[in-house]
């Protein structure tokens, strides 16, 4: 039978941060850490000069407070406080935020504010606030600017995630293939199997996207050296590099393949980090192509060949059709399908990845945030019209195990008066509790996370507990619980 499917594309708003800024928990906000010590007034002027409604940072709630505190870890190696955008001078003697955020959340340390006259607020390394002399003290600071909003839409094959850059030059799909010690050639071959190549990177914004896309994982890019010339496997010209300072330019050694280095490193590139190492996420190093270098690579990032081709999924008999389309136009597609019930076009919002299985047909997103609580996670998912992920069979669990590879991430399971419930209200019919937690103890650990790392508890000699669940303390307090650094959101695809 012949079926005509007509669909138009949904526009999604995407916040894009200027170079040098970090995207906030709210993607419409961008933050810049300035490590040069300045007076409060100089800091305020510098932030305002950044454009895009630039302002010294305000703290409306605990979530923003812990986000800002986390971003400042490297600064706190050297300075014990940084300026916040609150003062009593410009507000007639009472505390107020420069950007007019209501001053109803506070996190003063004990005995603070110590004076209410002519004072400016700072944050210490514990996240607590202090009142300080605005003029005679010089401290680093955090600027906040609005993200530029671009609208983007796109359709990717299952397993691929859509990204468009602000100028719209890049509109592409990306997939992360996790495989420990994969060689560069194996990685490129796996991508080619998908009509893709290892990813090429055209600019800082795309690099930042890949940094968060492959967060915590060293992953091959399609960049390799042939007779001392660096080239991309997909043939695009070399317009951008992000070499880490110590390999810029890469030495004349036999490390001829490049990976994005998304893990903790001992090398600091112009950052002030005394006594510690730096998180130099997003930098590249040249590495041993057979993955026998000192930094091991555990993944490949694939990108389809054509710059503007999204693979459109027509899921009949498991066959997938790849179609080019013009982003700004509705698209008409004519296909022959054996069964209309099997005909769906699934479209995940930007940042979400599609997965379908026997009981599953959903879009998933991983949000990285150290020490995020269960409730914060659910709230962030709800901002996207999603919930924390519910899991209904082994297939879905196995997918999420690789999706959230090597991170411990909240799923939507919580206990209410000894009954386990999913936040998306789906029935609790499947579980994968780690053996010694089955059933979970009757304690106050009432929220569940998927446990994607090595663990000593689950067997006499320890074992890899990837994919198993544990019940945990919802507030993610590291003194009592396992450190959770991510949340998995799940929502239905847009079906046309
Ligand atoms: C602060 O006030 C705003 C509006 O006035 C409100 O939306 C917000 O929930 C308040 N925050 C807290 C922590 O009370
Ligand atoms: C400063 O003002 C706050 C309320 O804004 C008040 O709670 C605090 O006691 C005041 N501190 C001093 C030292 O006056
Ligand atoms: C930071 O250091 C200064 C100077 O040593 C000290 O007065 C201040 O109390 C410290 N702040 C915090 C939050 O420890
Ligand atoms: C900047 O963001 C704030 C909210 O953070 C919003 O109220 C304001 O309209 C934005 N300004 C522009 C120019 O987008
Ligand atoms: C490597 O470079 C040589 C010439 O310098 C060229 O002939 C060859 O095609 C290149 N190989 C690849 C894989 O790019
Ligand atoms: C990259 O550089 C080439 C020439 O070196 C140029 O033709 C091309 O437009 C550039 N591409 C981008 C995306 O800037
Ligand atoms: C990308 O798109 C441009 C304009 O549509 C086209 O000229 C170019 O060949 C495309 N590049 C690739 C790698 O498909
Ligand atoms: C839908 O496709 C699957 C294979 O992808 C097949 O097993 C199933 O029988 C099909 N459903 C119908 C109703 O034909
Ligand atoms: C989490 O949210 C639920 C429902 O809104 C609330 O009952 C509970 O007290 C919250 N827990 C924490 C630790 O904030
Ligand atoms: C939690 O349990 C209580 C009593 O067992 C019930 O009244 C309440 O509706 C439950 N809450 C949720 C969110 O299911």
From TrEMBL:
Any idea where the C-type lectin domain is? 26-134, 169-292, 359-475
What is the top-level taxon of the source organism? Eukaryota
Tell me the first and last residues of the signal peptide: 1-15
The record's PROSITE patterns line, in alphabetical order, gives: C_TYPE_LECTIN_1, C_TYPE_LECTIN_2
- Is-annotated flag, keyword Disulfide bond? yes
Keywords, ordered alphabetically: Disulfide bond, Signal
Q: Which PANTHER family match?
A: MANNOSE, PHOSPHOLIPASE, LECTIN RECEPTOR RELATED (PTHR22803)
Indicate what this protein is called per its UniProt record: C-type lectin domain-containing protein
The organism is Acrobeloides nanus
């Amino acid at each position: 039978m012949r079926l005509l499917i007509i669909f138009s594309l949904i526009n999604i708003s995407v916040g894009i941060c200027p170079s040098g800024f970090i995207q906030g928990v709210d993607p419409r906000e961008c933050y810049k850490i300035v490590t040069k010590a300045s007076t409060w007034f100089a800091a305020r002027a510098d932030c305002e000069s950044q454009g895009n409604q630039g302002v010294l940072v305000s703290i409306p709630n605990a979530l923003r407070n812990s986000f800002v505190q986390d971003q400042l870890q490297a600064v706190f190696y050297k300075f014990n406080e940084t300026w916040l955008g609150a003062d009593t001078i410009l507000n007639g003697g009472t505390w107020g935020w420069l950007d007019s955020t209501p001053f109803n959340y506070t996190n003063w340390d004990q005995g603070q504010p110590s004076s209410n006259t002519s004072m400016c607020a700072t944050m210490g390394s514990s996240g607590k606030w202090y009142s300080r002399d605005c003029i005679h003290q010089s401290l680093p600071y955090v600027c906040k600017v609005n993200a530029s909003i671009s609208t983007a839409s796109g359709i990717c094959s299952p397993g691929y995630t859509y990204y468009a850059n602000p100028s719209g030059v890049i509109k592409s799909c990306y997939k992360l293939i996790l495989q420990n010690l994969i060689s560069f050639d194996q990685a490129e071959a796996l991508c080619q199997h998908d009509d893709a190549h290892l990813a090429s990177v055209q600019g800082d914004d795309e690099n930042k996207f890949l940094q968060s896309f492959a967060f915590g994982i060293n992953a091959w890019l399609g960049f390799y050296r042939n007779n001392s010339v660096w080239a991309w496997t997909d043939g695009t010209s070399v317009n951008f590099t992000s070499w880490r300072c110590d390999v810029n330019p890469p030495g004349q050694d036999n490390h001829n393949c490049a990976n994005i280095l998304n893990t903790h490193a001992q090398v600091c590139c112009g950052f002030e980090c005394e006594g510690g190492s730096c998180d130099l996420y997003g930098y590249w190093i040249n590495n041993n192509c057979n993955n026998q270098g000192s930094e091991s690579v555990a993944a490949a990032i694939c990108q389809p060949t054509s710059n503007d081709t999204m693979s459109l999924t027509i899921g009949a008999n498991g066959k997938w059709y790849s179609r080019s389309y013009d982003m700004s136009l509705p698209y008409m597609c004519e296909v022959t399908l054996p069964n209309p019930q099997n005909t769906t076009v699934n479209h995940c919002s930007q940042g979400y990845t599609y997965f379908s299985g026997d009981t599953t047909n959903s879009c998933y997103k991983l949000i990285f945030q150290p020490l995020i609580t269960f409730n914060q996670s659910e709230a962030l998912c709800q901002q996207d019209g999603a919930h924390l992920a519910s899991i209904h069979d082994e297939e879905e669990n196995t997918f999420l195990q690789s999706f959230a590879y090597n991170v411990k991430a909240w799923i939507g399971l919580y206990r209410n008066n000894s009954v386990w419930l999913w936040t998306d209200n789906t029935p609790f019919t499947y579980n994968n509790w780690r053996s010694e937690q089955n059933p979970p103890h009757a304690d106050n650990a009432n929220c569940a996370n998927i446990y994607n790392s090595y663990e000593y508890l689950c067997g006499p000699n320890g074992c890899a507990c990837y994919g198993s669940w544990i019940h945990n303390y919802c507030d993610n307090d590291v003194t009592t619980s396992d450190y959770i650094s991510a949340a998995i959101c799940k929502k239905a695809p847009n079906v046309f």
